[in-house]
Amino acid sequence: MTNLRKKIITKILQKDQGNIHDFISKLKLFVRKLRKFAESIDGIRHCHPKSFCSYCNLIFFCDNILALEANGAESFLSCLRELNKIQKHLLILRKKSADARQLDLFLEEIGLLFRIVRRALWKIQVWDWFDSIIVAFLLAMIFRAFIVQAFRIPSGSMRMTLVEGDMILVNKFIYGAKIPFTNLRLPAIRQPKRADVIVFIYPEDKKKDFIKRLVGLPGETVEIKGGSIYINNKAASEAIFNQIYYFNKGDFGLADQKIIVPPENYFVLGDNSASSKDSRYWGFVPKDDILGQAMIIYWPLQRIRVIK
Predict the structure, then answer these.
(1) I need a labelling partner for 70 at 20 to 30 A (CA). Which of 93, 143, 155, 276 fits?
(2) Residues 292, 175 contacting (CB under 8 angstroms)
(3) Domains (ranges, CATH) in the chain?
(4) Sequence-separated (6 or more) residues with CB below 8 Å from residue 211
């Protein structure tokens, strides 16, 4: 008990006044009784001559406790220190004194006093753990909502950039994280740009999140021709688009079809064009539905890398 931190003691004093008042009243009563015994002629007569100093020390420790006001962490901690010293001296005296029975009773009372403090300490520690869990949970929710969120890749629509089972981290603050339960967003670091791999809310099922590569920006004309991407009648200049063959599929990806991306919307495609359900089939991704940019693969270990 002598090593209890001030912080914990202060919390005990603040949050468990009932147990502490009970402890203080019983401690004072016990100390007065012990002091009376220690200074009595009967008490000294029944002790070993070499134990006289120990009895004097008991009186001294009792006076220290009676002089303290347990109204703060330091004074309360001092009470516990003195009580611990009394316990040690009683154990020494019990081996030498003829009145071992009375000393056993005093030791039992000290044990009860320490149990009161341990009970109060346990309650505070439980609340501390609970508080810590709540704080950690709230911080995790804030981190997940506004900074970075983990996702698992469920399909092969982004092969070979991402494969089934990849665990990725998505940067949510780069485009301005959406504030939960509102239509508001935090300020963005930058706007989405072509070739970004983005995570967004699936337009045809708001309960699902999709991941694709951003191809067409608001107001641009997108066309898939000869396996290549054309933006405003010019071949896309980003290197990644030259590494993928894009198939003409779906209502928005037919041959010789030029698609104009509406304002505040984006056109997205999967890297595995042959088996990706993307903007060619269901149209555009509203800006407000973009959750963030995929940053890195963090699992499995052999696939750790920056997503490009």
Answers:
(1) 93
(2) yes
(3) 6-142 (1.20.120), 147-306 (2.10.109.10)
(4) 151, 153, 157, 158, 162, 168, 197, 198, 199, 200, 294
Told to judge if 78 belongs to the known catalytic residues of this protein, a careful annotator would answer no
Specify whether 258 is catalytic. no
Collect all residues with Cβ–Cβ distance below 8 Å to 177 and sequence separation of at least 6: 145, 146, 147, 185, 186, 292
| Closest to 120 in 3D by CA, of 17, 2, 24 | 17
Highest mean pLDDT among 7-11, 84-88, 98-102: 84-88
Residue 178 carries which DSSP code?
B
The catalytic position among 97, 157, 276, 279 is 157
Specify which residues 305 forms β-bridges with: 297
Catalytic residue among 11, 172, 178, 212: 212
Is 90 exceeded by the pLDDT of residue 78? no
